[in-house]
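Work Package 3 (structural annotation) set out to generate three-dimensional models for the target panel prioritized at the project kickoff. During this period the team completed the workflow that converts sequence records into discrete structure tokens, so that structures can be stored uniformly alongside our sequence database. As a representative example, we reproduce one entry of 202 residues exactly as it appears in the project archive.
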Amino acid sequence: MRTLKIDEDTLELAESIINDIKASEDLGLLKCIQCGMCTSVCPAARHSDYDSRVIVKRVLDQDETLISDDIIWDCFTCYSCHSVCPVNNSVSEVIQILRQKSIENKTGISKVASFTTYGDSFLELGIGSIPDEFFNDMIKDIGKEYLELKINLDGIREELELGSIILPDKDLKDIKNILKRTGFIDRLNKIKAVNNDEEDTR
């Protein structure tokens, strides 16, 4: 694998990760000694070509091609790597920031496009729910129990004294306002637009 370096004298990629708002204040990325403890407990490494130690090495080597590499989407973000790292590094956090960079440069849009239906559902209902388009898949994967749950959900919730799943209009309006002000709606629409453009060019 060829490593593309930005500048031999800097750690620009690593520092951009450390300074990202999503990075823990004590992220030990620059302290990594490549011991491989992260890889030894990583479930993704056990079942794929993913190697958390190599991910960190590529970041420290300034390999910006990593941002467009499909390998960053193989992490389960289970934080097992973080739990064993002797220098408090978290490849899970590093991966999340790399994915964000991938989305920003549009190479990762196709990886998250299928989740836009969840965003639409959140906008419509104000809560996370499985979109209708996955209904048949859920029945196939779980069985008829899923259909029974959907049909009887109101009764089950009432029996458990959970109240209605439908939010009051005022609450839904507040949630939509928050989603608009935080940029969620713009981001959702941007991902949809880029993904639609990519589909049109196929």
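The domain at 12-105 is CATH 1.10.1060.10 (Fumarate Reductase Iron-sulfur Protein; Chain B, domain 2).
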